[in-house]
Amino acid sequence: MRYLITGATGQLGRALCARLGNEVVWSGGSAELDVTDPEAVARVVRGARPDIVVNASAWNDVEGAETLGAAAFAVNALGPLHLARAASAVAALTVHVSTDFVFDGAQQAPYDEHDCPRPLSVYGASKLAGEHLVAASGCPYLIVRTSALFGRGGSRAKGGSFPDRILARAAAGSPGEPLQVVSDQVCSPTYAPDLADAIVKLVAKGARGLFHVTNQGSCTWYAFAQETVRVARVDVPVIEARARDLGGKARRPGHAILSKERYEATGLPPLRPWAEALAEYLGTGRS
Question: How far apart are CA 146 and CA 212, in angstroms?
Fold first, then answer.
């Protein structure tokens, strides 16, 4: 298979390039391809002639999207549409990556692919719009929703992936100074290399449509931070905080756990527990 990967400088894009090796015929980040420019997208896709176009690019500054909504929609909604149209023109499959932020998190049971999305933030709305535009483009597509992605090459806008930010905060603080981390939002931390492997396997299975894919298990961001400092052997206290007490413009889902039943029904094995993946990440170095 010949893969074209956008967002290749991010954590998922890097993991996909590492996983696929010589199967990647073109890869690049925003400096190499502005996905909001339909002519540039068409030119790059036409030149590479891929079998698979994977859109791992995203505007993922959740807070910034609240005031820069047009920019977020340009990258997260129109960008996927341009890629899908360009992929269709060369008879390629479009693989688009989305998020649990399309849900409001009010449901206590895991969300499956048939549950009605209700995003609370501009970011979530822009990602949902991207899903709809890819699905409506008429191209063959595979949309993968995931949660709390972490890995090498985390978002520059956020200061790296969540474990990196926690360890950076611990290093910057005074000795014994506690870290406040949200304890009323639950997620399923997902390791970028594990997600990349799952995407490649779904493509190989001929999967089409919408799938939820995360590592096994769930936790609060507070528990995620606790496990990070424990595994990294950093002696810093982590204390619970409520989201409303930490401020922020964007509303986030409280309990947006994704059901993996459809993914596992393909016969593919479940991804490993998130804590096991975190231990590997912290043991192999951080970027």
Answer: 6
Residues designated catalytic? 123
**pLDDT tens digits, residue range 44-75?**
999 999 999 999 999 999 999 999 999 999 99
**pLDDT tens by residue, 198-233:** 999 999 999 999 999 999 999 999 999 999 999 999
Q: Domain residues for 66?
A: 3-153+188-216+257-266
Task: Say what the pTM is.
Answer: 0.94
Number of separate domains in the chain: 1
* DSSP per position, 171-226: HHSPTTPPEEEE-S-EE--EEHHHHHHHHHHHHHHT--EEEE---B--EEHHHHHH
Find where tokens 């595994």 sit: 231
